[in-house]
Amino acid sequence: MSHMKEISIRELHRRTGAWVRDARKYGSILIRDRNTPVAKLVPISGEPPVNVFKGWKPMKKFAEALDRPVSGTPVEEIIGQDRNR
Amino acid sequence: MAKIETADAIAPTYFDSALIAKFYLNEPGREAIRVLARNAGIVVTSGIAVAEISAAFHRKFREGAVDHDVFKALHGQFQHDLTNGLWRLIGPTEALLEQVRVLFVRLDRLVFLRSLDALHLVTARAEHFDRIYSNDRHLLAACAALGLEGINPIRQTFHKIDSLRN
Questions:
Q1: Is 70 exceeded by the pLDDT of residue B161?
Q2: pLDDT of B12-67, one tens digit each?
Q3: Which positions ≥6 away from B141 have C-beta within 8 Å?
Q4: Do B66 and A16 touch (CB under 8 A)?
Q5: Does residue B160 belong to the interface with chain A, where contact is any CB pair within 8 Å?
């Protein structure tokens, strides 16, 4: 059984952007002022978003190479140093 | 954040470039990034990530940390994934660059902020994210200046593993 996602006004205020994006995920979100329902956040209808990472695997011809452990400077340090220049 | 209630729930998430590079490189933390991306369903980043990641792969190759086969594999897979829209790239547009300029005009003189960190932060904010995932300490430290929450998913994972061990 599914039921509508419910959040408080305070929670909506705290993370407005995230809840607006999540409206499509939940179908709609009910906003409560204390315990009283006061509003509903409803997404504009359209194609539901697809999880592009579900079932992602490296391509067969690259899988073995990408599985080898990589040594050297960690990539976050490389990019950090690049930004420091 | 509220627990996701359906198996196919999507929670678009903003990644800094280093996390996307780590998604491909078999370094500590890769699995945590892949799990986070799978849970998010959609990962958004600045288009500048393509340049940063390509440069990072080349530095790994230049330093001999990866051989030619791995270097080719990294680029082959990355190109394939870009073509197929695995990573949702935003800009950089003229409007975003103008926002970066304005950000630096108004930025407190005590905040250390690098140009590409600023571009990522401005892009995330323009896309209405209220948090950004990164494992770069400078970018994470600068998040608050833009009212964003910075989260290091790799440190969180290791912290969780340590807690379970103790």
A1: no
A2: 999 999 999 999 999 999 999 999 999 999 999 999 999 999 999 999 999 999 99
A3: B112, B150
A4: no
A5: no
CA distance B140 to B90: 20
Which of B60, B79, B146 should we substitute to test contact with A (largest number of A Cβ atoms within 10 Å)?
B60
If one counts every other C-beta atom within 10 angstroms of the C-beta of residue B89, the result is: 15
User: Which contacts qualify for B156-159: CB closer than 8 Å, 24 or more apart?
Assistant: B156/B32, B157/B29, B157/B32, B158/B29
CB distance B120 to B100 below 8 Å:
no
The answer to whether ipTM exceeds 0.85 is no
B-interface mutation test, from A2, A31, A53, most B Cβ less than 10 A away = A53
Kindly report the length of chain B. Answer: 166
Q: What is the pLDDT of residues B117-135, one digit of tens each?
A: 999 999 999 998 999 999 9
The answer to whether A28 and A40 are in contact (CB under 8 A) is yes
**Which chain B residue lies closest to A15 (C-alpha atoms)?**
B130
